[in-house]
Amino acid sequence: MKTNAGSSHFALQPLPTATNGQKLLIAAAGLQAHALKAMMRYQVETLSFLKHRCEQNVKMVDDLVTGGDFNDAFDVLNNFLQNATSDYAMEAGKVASISSRLASEIARHVRRQAEATIEDMAASTVA
Questions:
Q1: Is the pTM value of this prediction over 0.85?
Q2: 8-17 burial, b if ≥16 CB within 10 A, otherwise e?
Q3: Would residue 104 count as lying in a domain?
Q4: Is residue 22 a part of any domain in this protein?
Q5: For residue 114, is it within any domain?
Q6: CB 76: neighbour CB atoms within 10 A?
Q7: How many CA within 13 A on the CB side of residue 54?
Q8: How does the average pLDDT of the chain come out, rounded?
Q9: CA 122 to CA 73: how far, in whole Å?
Q10: What does the pLDDT read at residue 56?
């Protein structure tokens, strides 16, 4: 029995679906990384805001305890509620800004992936 040590005419070539599947997995991992970064940005912003609000709550309690008059307590609560309303409105603006920025980044990433896929498909069609 004779064996041919040279390359066979029917040598196995990588399947196009395997290559495309690999690219799909890499693209999916990239989108997951973007989603993780987005989630972490939201959490950092949320925790920073909650820290600030908790500090303001402690300050309000201290001001209520040190104030001796009913009018002082009313002023303390009034100031606290005005500041809280303002803080929550500003935080909503920050979250909207983060959301807009993340949507732009994800759209840019998806566009690049689509362009790369189109180029790969064109190259494989020519070859």
A1: no
A2: eeeeeeeeee
A3: yes
A4: no
A5: yes
A6: 19
A7: 6
A8: 83
A9: 73
A10: 96
The tally of domains found in the chain comes to: 1
The alpha-helical segments, DSSP class H, found in 1-127 are 16-66, 70-126
CB hemisphere CA count around 120 (13 angstroms): 14
Q: What is the pLDDT of residues 73-118, one digit of tens each?
A: 889 999 999 999 999 999 999 999 988 988 898 888 888 888 887 8
Task: Give CA–CA dist 92/49, Å, rounded.
Answer: 11
Which residue range is the domain that position 90 belongs to? 29-126
Mean local confidence (pLDDT), 51-80: 90
Q: Give the highest mean pLDDT range of 14-18, 61-65, 67-71, 119-123.
A: 61-65
Would you say residue 118 lies in a domain? yes
Distance CA 8, CA 85 (A): 76
Residue 85, burial from CB neighbour count under 10 angstroms (0-12, 13-18, 19+): exposed
- Show the tokens assigned to 79: 């100031």
Hey, is 4 helix, strand or coil? coil
